[in-house]
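Before a colleague's protein record goes any further, I have to sign it off. My question to you is simply how this chain folds and whether the tokens agree. I do not need a full report, just your reasoning and any doubts. This is what I was given:
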Amino acid sequence: MDATSQRLLMCRPTYFAVDYKINPWMDPSGPVDAALAVRQWEQLRQTYLDLGHTVEEITPVPGLPDMVFAANGGTVIDGRALAVQFRDPQRADEAPAYRAWFEAAGFEMYDPKHVNEGEGDVLLAGDHLLAGTGFRTAHASHAQLQEIFGYPVITMQLVDPRFYHLDTALTVLDERTVAYLPEAFSPGSQAVLRRLFPDAVHATMADAEVLGLNAVSDGRHVVLPAQATDLAAKLRDRGYETIGVDLSELLKAGGGPKCCTLRLRQGKASK
């Protein structure tokens, strides 16, 4: 298996907190250790650097505790960036901050026509875009994705509110293989996944409940929550090298490694 060097965007959780509830994981009455969240995030960042990836950072904005979840900041493929429109008003001000970063970085910019929460719901898998809907990203946005990026878009209907973004229920391991939780998808979407990825890795509910599928793969190494032990074993059996990280504080907001990580695909050679 060959590892592909990646360019990644992250946002330090300087202002991380759980001040509101917009998904089932969030409990504003529970304790949050902000300093621990920063240390865990720094471990994730260092893991990427140790693997040879390039990590760029966007400056966090006070009052935006979920800005750490950079995957929701946009979709970037072949040097084009589609900005986002969040469903929830608590996150709305993240959108212009990420858009400004993409523009300053020289990406060709497009503005969303519908609610679209970036790579949280849009995953490039080989020559297809898997696009989630059901809780956040609007189904109507999928047509715009296809027009901008020129990849066939496959709609994935999510049915379990705990797995509110596609990247909490499915991870792309390489251009031919994914891992996913079947129960997170509608029967029709399960059938499509079986057809597209007959050799997929199926996660257990226990691993999905620690956001084990919220993982980042470079084609050889898979960075995933340390608590997802069964999934890690299955991936190793398939020949992948797994690296477990502990993001227990960010999990309190429903986030894991992939939520913290946005892939910046500069050109077609870096798919």
